[in-house]
């Protein structure tokens, strides 16, 4: 088997049929692009290594369960998994409060909420996040990407421009149009986003 000539579709089929070397070929074929993408988002080698590994664990599990839909876009699918894992990491990191102050009259208790969100508030917030995430699927791919990179991964527009290989103005324009389109969708679908 010539690894360079073998299509991704064949490699996936071979892996599902028990040829584990086929998965290794797929990983090696895309590892540089995938790792670079993850590293650019997280800017930490150890974290990038962990997310890279977690991505392929998810890929393997999905393939073994037969849940992969072959649409000829294997690397895009793998990168979307990695992207979601990066977002999950940043979400978890934001839940850990970090406070720093050089002011002499600083009181840490002034920065803390006295109560956790109630079950109802949490449910409403979860529903809002869910509704917005569903709406993103209606956006063009480049608008969806800039929303994810800015709002979920926390990248600057400069980093987004570098990652997507466009100018900063183009990245800003995509964000603007994404927000305009999201507002239209919210109105069209009669969705109420309040907390």
Task: Throw out a few tags for this protein.
195 residues; mainly alpha; Rna Polymerase Sigma Factor, Chain: A; Arc Repressor Mutant, subunit A; globular
Task: Describe the structure concisely.
This protein has 195 residues and is mainly α.
Average residue pLDDT: 79
Instruction: Please give the radius of gyration in angstroms.
Output: 21 Å
CATH superfamily of the largest domain: RNA polymerase sigma factor, region 2, helix turn helix motif
How many β-strand stretches? 0
Question: Which SSEs are present, and which pair or pack?
Answer:
Elements: H1 8-16, H2 20-42, H3 45-65, H4 74-94, H5 119-136, H6 141-152, H7 157-164, H8 168-188
Helix pairs in contact: 1-2, 2-3, 2-4, 3-4, 6-8, 7-8
Describe the model.
68% of the residues lie in helices and 0% in strands. It is mainly α and 195 residues long. It contains eight helices and no strands. The chain has two domains: 1-100, RNA polymerase sigma factor, region 2, helix turn helix motif (Rna Polymerase Sigma Factor, Chain: A), CATH 1.10.1740; 118-195, Winged helix-like DNA-binding domain superfamily/Winged helix DNA-binding domain (Arc Repressor Mutant, subunit A). The model has no long low-confidence stretch (mean pLDDT 79). The longest helix is centred in the N-terminal third of the chain and has 23 residues, at 20-42.
